[in-house]
Amino acid sequence: MDHSWPVELLKRQYLQLIDPERLELPCKKLLRMPLIQARIFDEILDESALIYLPPERYKSRVLKRLIKALEEAIEDPEEDEISDDISACLAQSMAQPLPSASSAAQQKSYVTYTAPVTNPNAPRITTLEAPSLLASSGTTGFRTWEAALHLGSYLVSEDGNHHVADQRIIELGAGTGFLSILCAKHLGARHVLATDGSLEVVTDIKVNLDLNELEEGDLIKTSVLRWGHALIGCPADCRREELSYDVAIGADVTYDIKSMPALIATMRDLFELYPKLKVLIAATRRNEETLQFFLAACETNGFETERLDFSMPKANDQTGFFHPTSTPIQLSLITNQGARIDPFSLQLE
């Protein structure tokens, strides 16, 4: 019997910093096995086995949950034992001073995302981000949101990969650069431009490119791109190079109704520069009114919108790019039909 998958699944969740209470631990029968405990230590808890380590506070919480599960799995105290390596790991963790919960929440951490495929060479992306950042805390580009993970799952799938393979991609509101890195490093994009309206966010994207060995060459570039501003002469304008972008992607870019006219204006400018452009938008449906406003604005401007049928797997069925399923995420494919209306004429009610 192959016991590698339960440990691999736990490792993927651990490296993505999934809440310790939501980690899917191996069943009790497996946890009692010395081989499984040894693999958990060797592949997950032994720091020499990992390049980018989770925060110490997070590791301590995971160890406490794991030890409790191991204790509950014991049936015969004389036969079943808890690994000395795991016990020592917990003792060492408890001996270290840890930052407070509030302080830890403000710190950036390494987060490693594994694509939702079960083979051992599944694509992985590591970012330095603020995973505890709240949606209401101003600049939201310092963490990877669930809409980006869902769109990433779609692009990795057979249904979605053709949108990226051998295509020139521009990302709007790239945030941590997760999607741009995925397209450039793992999905065969010809070129990627990761853009965001915040210079500080774009600076952080460059750090994440370095973490994923993409800092050199012309495969992926970064740029500040403020929606509603002219694209002529900016890095998104490739006309002088006789090139064009094929696909624009954006995840969680429709959450603020006040930014909608500027986003629509930028989309319209992109369609003018690249008439055959396809736009893929992933929208978390926190506020139905906001999403409907965006879709109505697209229709008003003559854009054709198609809802993509790609369902969110249940939390217990996810094998990578783990994300909550409590709030629906809608994927839309938007193309240009040629009509043009000034998006700033749209009045916010």
Q: Topology of this structure?
A:
Elements: H1 4-15, H2 28-31, H3 34-45, H4 56-73, H5 84-95, H6 101-106, E1 109-114, E2 124-129, H7 146-156, E3 168-171, H8 178-186, E4 191-196, H9 199-211, E5 220-224, E6 247-251, H10 260-273, E7 278-284, H11 288-300, E8 303-308, E9 329-336
Parallel strand pairs: 3-4, 3-6, 4-5, 6-7
Antiparallel strand pairs: 1-2, 7-9, 8-9
Keywords:
single chain; 349 residues; alpha/beta; Rossmann fold; 2 domains; seven-stranded mixed β-sheet; two-stranded antiparallel sheet; disordered C terminus
What can you see in these coordinates?
The protein has 349 residues and is of the alpha/beta class. The chain is 36% helix and 15% strand. It folds into 2 domains: 4-104, no CATH class; 108-345, Rossmann fold. The chain has helices at residues 4-15, 28-31, 34-45, 56-73, 84-95, 101-106, 146-156, 178-186, 199-211, 260-273, 288-300; strands at residues 109-114, 124-129, 168-171, 191-196, 220-224, 247-251, 278-284, 303-308, 329-336. Helix 1 packs parallel to helix 3, helix 4 (56-73) packs antiparallel against helix 5 (84-95) and helix 7 packs parallel to helix 8. The protein starts with a helix and ends in a 13-residue tail after the last strand.
Structural class: alpha/beta
Proportion of residues in β-strands? 15-25%
Most strands sheet: 7 strands, mixed
Helix content: 25-40%
Strand line-up in the sheet with most strands: 5-4-3-6-7-9-8
> How does CATH name the architecture of the largest domain?
3-Layer(aba) Sandwich
Number of helices: 11
The name CATH uses for the topology of the largest domain is Rossmann fold
